Amino acid sequence: MENVLVTGGAGFVGSHAAAFYDDRGVSVTALDNLSRVDTLAEADADRDTAAYNWKYLEREHPDVERVEADVRDFDRLESIVEGHDGIVHTAGQVAVTTSLDDPFLDFEVNARGTLNVLEAASAAASDPAVVVASTNKVYGDNVNDVPVREEESRYQYDDPEFEDGIPETLSIDDCEHTPYGVSKLAADLYVQDYAERGEVDAAAFRMSCIYGPRQFGNEDQGWVAHFALSALRDEPLTIYGDGKQVRDVLYVEDLIRAYDAFLQDPTGKPSVFNVGGGPENTTSLLEFLDLLEEETGSRPDVSFEDWRQGDQKVYVSDVSRAENKLHWVPEIGFEEGIERYLDWTCQIQ
């Protein structure tokens, strides 16, 4: 690839994708409408990931062309897409809580925005391949139908069929979803449709918990960063549920390598991938608090509230499809990744 467009280029994942390709000598356009902080109910000025990363790209990657635009504006988007041979589509509404408050916005950004990207890619003479940031929330409450057992500090899957995690074949039907999960699933299905009909070489990456430098998490989104910053800043923390819920976690650079593996050779590849740390990189919320205390000597004051709608007791990605089809595996273990994240936070204090 010679020319890559990154939508949501001011976001956490998008800015890393832009930097990744710029470092490799690729011509990069980063598109963002710079409104993301407004869509997070509890965001504040010192946790504005978008503002920080937009300035970061300007300072550290001046060759990246930064364009303020909105994926909901199809005519503008179509003119920008032309000439690019790869698209990393990360622009989106990112919070379940916001989707419950404003499902229309959630739909327009996530579902319609993705459809616009695919239509623009299909129409472009430059024939770009497309990767789309999807989410494990597309599986809805079906994840909670997998039997789990409760241990001292975590829940674990209690069915041998899921010892490697949740596969791409888990049903998305006949279960409760959230507006966020529905909008992302609609986008996901559009990706599959355009790929299967040969309109666009495209794949949806159903992401688990992604973390790393230049992420300012908050209560609505980016919980790994939110927990770490709360510990470092001695800020109180609310856990929804009992803290034993488990997620697989993936360092952001590993995620971008997975995207790139598809974009470099999309021919004949599946149009859906689960991507996360997999069974080797899991933590519960309580276990992560213990790790943070070991690393920082600090533990935030924690209060507990009821489980939130759409939460999953355990979600672990089965990443075997990505391993087999993309020849990709996570390279950065969770403890190493957290050390890198904490080192970065020390640099910006």
UniProtKB/TrEMBL annotation:
Domain NAD-dependent epimerase/dehydratase: start-end pairs: 4-276
Pfam families hit by this protein: Epimerase (PF01370)
Domain of life, source organism: Archaea
InterPro entries reported for this sequence: Epimerase_deHydtase, NAD(P)-bd_dom_sf
Protein family membership: Belongs to the NAD(P)-dependent epimerase/dehydratase family.
Protein name: CDP-paratose 2-epimerase
Protein source organism: Halopenitus persicus
